[in-house]
């Protein structure tokens, strides 16, 4: 339990630092920006209580909002995907999730990709909807959601694949 707390704390701090110091400075083509900190929520332990998942998701979103001065939109998007996480896990991993037998790095790539993609797309849609907050700009919201999601998903898949090979 103690090593789990330490590893999640280190992951939390590293992801916030990477997001704030490096990734927030990327604004490719004016609208593509990866939100890599979502990985923290994706990799939280499956047996963690939903209240803790929601709280930690709120906390990481709030930290990002603090540094971006974005008024809580990251916290809102993070809590939303944390709330949906059990349903998406069940959809992506099926019976393995229900029996709590999932080992993230031992699951098929397609299941991991589905899980990552759904949560990242939902997160980004909520984030950009709250950022723009005007549905007359729905095309811009969808464009930012799509392209930033692709960039974020590729980054998450790349990083998780690199760390998988070490284990």
Automatic annotation (TrEMBL):
The chain crosses the membrane at residues 12-44, 73-93, 113-133, 145-163. The lineage of its organism: Bacteria, Pseudomonadati, Bacteroidota, Flavobacteriia, Flavobacteriales. It comes from the Bacteria. Keywords: Membrane, Transmembrane, Transmembrane helix. This is Rod shape-determining protein MreD.
